[in-house]
Each structure stands twice: as structure tokens, then as C-alpha cells.
Specification:
Shape: elongated
CATH architecture of the largest domain: 3-Layer(aba) Sandwich
Number of helices: 13
CATH topology of the largest domain: Rossmann fold
Number of domains: 2
Radius of gyration: 26 Å
CATH class of the largest domain: Alpha Beta
Structural class: alpha+beta
Largest sheet: 8 strands, antiparallel
Distance between the termini: 52 Å
Oligomer: single chain
CATH superfamily of the largest domain: Nucleoside phosphorylase domain
Mean pLDDT: 84
Low-confidence stretches: 1-5, 256-262, 416-422
């Protein structure tokens, strides 16, 4: 499968020790909350490039599948990894050894009748490119571990029970039908299924914490769970680092790499809130409009959006922690805003199509609202970041980016060496522009300043033409 160039991967874990081992390798992890309450942490790789969205699923294939599905929908990652511990099925594996799964067996599927058990397995091969990168990392030792353990590339088996006896029925089933499986665990089948259904590249990295031989409690007491979790995390992050290092460059923002699949259905701020502008000051409004159906919101998600918008706006400084806000949810949109005042007001809105909108007042002086090219660019960039990082919404493949100034009548420009109000004022009621093409969403997340520069230039030019 060809991997799309994005700047984020998802790493799923099952145990707190696995989660902590990966988290220790990230810088400045920040919480990202899914609409259903699932919490991820997103951080950058220490000394590397790219971002990691870290998830804790708990034990079992079913919770792993659900959390992986949510993570893929939330982040549209370049790849999905599972990093964790496993029990050894092959005698040549030492405790702490790393097993990169060339294949994941879901081994508990089958048919049991009068003649005994017949296996009906599901299996998922490792993504070819991810496996190739993992083999390269293993050969040259670039993961820089002080005492790097052995790394092997073999299938693993994922079931629904913790196996700790070579004489258990599950152990006999594995020997009979899955003799090439080197390790046994409980989550990779569910994660692989979720990745497969979403066409996301997937790789499992496991490290051996016990031998599944009836002495698991002894190895656990000896600390092998933490050691193995650290080994799996270190190798996974090394693979992720190399994945980003070998990635093709991101496509240019607004380039023809992504074409518009349908006309842009854009609702401006007054359309979203259902009210005409009641602010005395001109506001800068910025919009992200999904260019595919993936960004659309179900009714039950839209109903809860005002809570997410409020929390997101307060967390990112659009609203203060104490100011009183107004919120409303209609059949088409949800929005939240600060109270109107002589300084203008700020707000966030989401449409059922997945369109996102943020607005905030322009700076002003004694003569009224003024356009300062540099300050306008910073304001547009802040709004783009605010909208792109809004959690709880599906991430579209590409978006149209738009911006507007309203009410624009009477606007003047702040130019160096010019007296306030000396350059003429705007006569248009409003100024509205959009990007020249569809912007890949992952590129917008990685390089919002480029989109802001283009959008600001268009907005500033339209303003000057209206003066």
C-alpha cells in the first residue's frame, strides 16, 4: 500500500507500562479528546521529526479495534502501530527480545463439532513499506538502545485469553495450526482489522515479557513487563523516526495535488449563527470546508459540539476562563461566542457538513477598525491552527480555506509612516476570499503558516481593491 505523506502516526498500547514507555520518548505530549470521551496524547519525537498520537486501549482485541478506529478517524495518520509486550511461543526467544509481526493471526476463530476443532483464522500481513523500514532499522542498529535486544521478524497470534501454560487447549491449538507464530498476545488482531478497514498501513511491534510456560508471575515479579515494554517502545519510535525521515515532501498548499471533487458549499459566519452582525468592530472570520463527505457530522455529534467548542476555545485562548459565553445548536450548526461588547466578540462554529469557523475582532484605534498586514497574518494563522486542531471531528482528506472581514465599511489600513485614516476607507459591506485550490488537511496541520500567508495575501489584496 502506498503511504500518504502526513506528519502523524498512531501508536496503540494496551497496558499502562506500554503507554508510559512510549510517552517517555515524546516531547510535550498534549491531551486530545475524542467526541466520545477517549483521550489521546499527541507529542513530537525526541530529537526527531513528526508527531505521535498515543492511545491506551486496554487489554483485548475488541477495545483495541474501537480505539484504533477512533484514532484513525481523528488523526488520519500516516500509519498505525501497536507497541507492547507478548508471551513467547518459540523457545529461541529470550526475555526482552523484540518481535516485529510479519503477519497477525486472529487465532480464536474456528468451528467445533463432533470431530473436534477446526481453525478458521483471520490473518493480516504487515504493511510492506513499514516492514522494510523495520528491517533496515534492525540491521543498522539506528535505534541506539544501550543494550539492544535481538529483533526477529515472525508472525504473532492474537487471541482473547492470557496464555500461561504449554498444556492449555489454546497452546495446543497454536502449535497445531499456527506453529510459525513466535508470540501470543491479545490486541493486534483488533488493531489490524481497524487499520485494514480504513486502508491505513499497520505494524505490530512486541517484546517478550514471559514464555507462556506457567511462570509468568515470576517474570512479572522480576520486572520483565517494564523492560519488554521499553524495548518495544524504543524500536517502534525508531521505525517511526525513519518513516518520517524517508517520507516524500508534503504537497504544496493550494496546489493541484488535490482537486476539488464538488462545488464549495460555504456558510459564512452570519449564515452559521443565523444572526446579522451585532458587533461594532470588524471581525476576521476564517473557515475550513471539507472537500469530501468524510467530514460530515452525525446529528448526535452536532448536539454535543457546543461543549467541545467552549472547551477548545478556552484551552487555546480564544475565550478567557471566566467570561460568559452564548451557545446554540440548530439542525445545521453549533456555535459558541463571547458576549458582544465595544471591543467586538469572538466565536467558534461548526456546520453539519463539517465546516469549521472561527472569528475574532480586528485591531482598532481612535478612528475605528484598521487592517495591519502583519497583524492580520498572525490573526489568520491563529484561527487556522485553532480550527485544524479542533478535536472530536473527523479529519477530511482536504479542505477549502476561506476568510472574510465583516462589517468592512469604513475600514482603514495601518501603513508605516502614514497618519491614521489618511489612506482612504473601505466602501464594501464585507470582504470574502478563499484559497485557490483544495488544501490537503495533513499539510495544513503541518504547515499552517503557508496557508495563512496565502489567505492573508488574498484578503489584503481584496481589501485594497475595495478602498
Amino acid at each position: 500500500m502506498t503511504i500518504e505523506p502526513t506528519d502523524i502516526v498512531v501508536v496503540v498500547t494496551a497496558l499502562e507500562s506500554e503507554y508510559a514507555a512510549v510517552r517517555d520518548l515524546l516531547e510535550e505530549p498534549a491531551v486530545r479528546r475524542h467526541a466520545a470521551g477517549t483521550r489521546f496524547e499527541v507529542g513530537t519525537i525526541r530529537g526527531g521529526t513528526g508527531r505521535v498520537a498515543l492511545a491506551l486501549a486496554g487489554a483485548g482485541n475488541q477495545p483495541a479495534a474501537v480505539v484504533a478506529e477512533r484514532a484513525i478517524a481523528e488523526f488520519r495518520p500516516r500509519a498505525v502501530f501497536f507497541a507492547g509486550i507478548a508471551g513467547a511461543l518459540h523457545d529461541d526467544l529470550d526475555l526482552g527480545s523484540v518481535v516485529v509481526a510479519t503477519k497477525v493471526y486472529g487465532y480464536h476463530g474456528g468451528f467445533e463439532g463432533g470431530e473436534g476443532f477446526g481453525a478458521r483464522p483471520q490473518a493480516w500481513d504487515a504493511d510492506h513499506e513499514l516492514e522494510q523500514i523495520a528491517r533496515s532499522v534492525s540491521r543498522d542498529g539506528r535505534w541506539r538502545f544501550p543494550a539492544a535486544p535481538r529483533v526477529v521478524f515472525r508472525p504473532v497470534a492474537a487471541g482473547e485469553v492470557v496464555l500461561d501454560s504449554p498444556f492449555a487447549p489454546s497452546a495446543q491449538q497454536l502449535r497445531q495450526h499456527y506453529s510459525d507464530a513466535a508470540a501470543v498476545e491479545l490486541e493486534s488482531a483488533g488493531t489490524a482489522k481497524a487499520a485494514h478497514l480504513n486502508r491505513a498501513p499497520f505494524l505490530t511491534v512486541r517484546a517478550i515479557s514471559d514464555r507462556a510456560d506457567g511462570r509468568k508471575h515470576e517474570s512479572d515479579r522480576a520486572g520483565w513487563q517494564s523492560i519488554a515494554a521499553g524495548n518495544a517502545a524504543a524500536f517502534t519510535i525508531a521505525v517511526v523516526t525513519e518513516l518520517f525521515a524517508s517520507a516524500p515532501s508534503l504537497p504544496a498548499l493550494g496546489s493541484s495535488a488535490v482537486t476539488w471533487q464538488r462545488p464549495v458549499e460555504l456558510s459564512w459566519r452570519t449564515d452559521l449563527t443565523g444572526t446579522t452582525s451585532a458587533v461594532e468592530r470588524c471581525a476576521v472570520e476564517v473557515h475550513l470546508v471539507p472537500m469530501d463527505e468524510y467530514g460530515r457530522l452525525e446529528a448526535h455529534v452536532l448536539e454535543r459540539m457546543h461543549e467541545l467548542l467552549t472547551a477548545h476555545g478556552r484551552t487555546h485562548g480564544l475565550f478567557s476562563g471566566t467570561e460568559r459565553l452564548s451557545a446554540e445548536v440548530s439542525a445545521d450548526a453549533a456555535w459558541v461566542r463571547s458576549a458582544p461588547s465595544p471591543d467586538g466578540h469572538r466565536g467558534l462554529a461548526v456546520h453539519r457538513t463539517g465546516q469549521r469557523c472561527a472569528w475574532s475582532p480586528l485591531q482598532y484605534n481612535a478612528h475605528g477598525s484598521v487592517v495591519d498586514r502583519t497583524a492580520l497574518g498572525r490573526q489568520v494563522e491563529r484561527s487556522l491552527r485553532l480550527l485544524a486542531e479542533l478535536s472530536g471531528l473527523p479529519a477530511p482528506a482536504a479542505v477549502a480555506v476561506a476568510a472574510g472581514l465583516e462589517p468592512a465599511a469604513g475600514l482603514t489600513e495601518n501603513r508605516a509612516g502614514q497618519l491614521p485614516g489618511a489612506g482612504g476607507s473601505c466602501t464594501a459591506a464585507r470582504i470574502r476570499v478563499h484559497s485557490g485550490g483544495a488544501v490537503p488537511f495533513h499539510a495544513l496541520l503541518a504547515r499552517p503558516q503557508e496557508a495563512a500567508d496565502e489567505l492573508t495575501a488574498r484578503l489584503h489584496q481584496a481589501f485594497r481593491q475595495a478602498c
